[in-house]
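Following the same procedure, the fold was encoded as tokens, giving this record:
***
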Amino acid sequence: MAKTEDFFKYIIDGNTTKGDFIPVGAAMLNGETVTGAHVKIPLKTMNRHGLIAGATGTGKTKSLQVLAENLSDKGIPVLLMDIKGDLSGLAQPSPGHPKIDERHEKIGLPFEAKSFPVEILTLSEQDGVRLRATVSEFGPTLLSRILDLTQAQSGVMAVLFQYCDDNKLPILDLKDLKKVLHYATNEGKEEFTESYGRISTASTGAILRKIIELEQQGADLFFGETSFEVDDLLRIDENGRGYINIIRLTDIQDRPKLFSTFMLSLLAEIYATFPEQGDSDRPELIMFIDEAHLIFNEASKPLLNQIESIVKLIRSKGVGLYFVTQNPTDVPEEVLGQLGLKIQHALRAFTAKDRKAIKLTAENYPDSEYYDTTEVLTSLGIGEALISALNEKGRPTPLAATMMRAPMSRMDVLTDTELSNLLSGSKLSKKYNKEVDRESAYELLNEKIEKAEAKESKEKAKKEQEALKKEEAKQKSRSASTNRRSTRMNPVVKVLTSATFIRSVFGILNKVIKK
């Protein structure tokens, strides 16, 4: 049996699956495609997470697009983080090209141009369905990790949330949180000290500075209402295809703190909301996180621990996470070890550091008698990748250099008119794009402070009035006393009241009576 035949059997046997699957391309040997040796990914294992890596321009985005399209066709909703802004073309069919036909002929898979149901979402003021979450939904623990607070500061945050829960003060946006921080060490200082212990101004000041830093990255647009419901990511269209939800992130590339804040809140909400799936035959939702290094490069140790925990636990909810980045070393080892599917496009060895990274990357893949993995990693062409997946029993499939199939949708962005038409037909826009600013901690505490000030002012006025009355009474008493003294001092009165005068008057009266 020829080596090519052995290789064909090696690929086919290793990719046998009884359940549903996604064919992503055909295996290659010595740089040539082996037609019919299809590389397939079982849907059953798609919630085991994955990685799509490779140098710029090697085809990562197109591989992401292929997976998203096929998942949608299988009725599985998808969430894409579109940082470069080149995924909106999923809403329009591919215009086709002779090179696409040639590629698919080599692969041995039919090509069908089609569009997919797409929803455009946004974290910022760009057009799209607005994504928001309340501060209360984050809770003190997750918020403390995002803000990278110390243990003492995290304790203060927990006390603030407890106070708001006890007093029915909703913390909806950052304005509310800042107001509570200020109140705890100013107008409400005595109240906090009596019921919750003294709050240090040094701690609240440090927390406030961290909040302002988050605000500067645009978080004030993200925190608030109407809060996005994660169940709306699970929609299926009238043809039974899963919606591809694309979050436009082109304007927050330089704001990684906002990006990681959103990602963690979304994952935490999904984990808290979605029911346990157990060993399901198909995932509930697949998420692709493009430019994943933006999350990990800026993450603190507690934040990395939180990400690692979520990656480990969320697959039980039927959710698969796929990190898209230039180099696998961008992803922490603790997370990398949890990823079942690896699609590795070409890497470039320009420096000694690059060569070392390639060697480390090669060690992450199963050994193969057909490939020198280190060599293949630098010789792959555009749209070609090394693939290692998990079969239905959770075992790694044979390593295969693969010619990837082409996307069925457009490999380009939508025009302004196409985007406008897509957004105008969105049902979610009507639900989430109306800004709400209901009464919350900011307004309620201001009202409380105003009432306290009014009461204090009233009591002060009352005291001043009472003091004034006392003073008036004293003045009257002094006047009466002065009048009495004045009367006694009057010369006429003195004459009239003198003993001599009285005796003279009585003497005259006596004489008159005798006569």
User: Anything to note?
Assistant: The mean pLDDT is 85. Residues 115 and 282 are 23 Å apart (CA to CA). The longest strand covers residues 32-42. The radius of gyration is 39 Å.
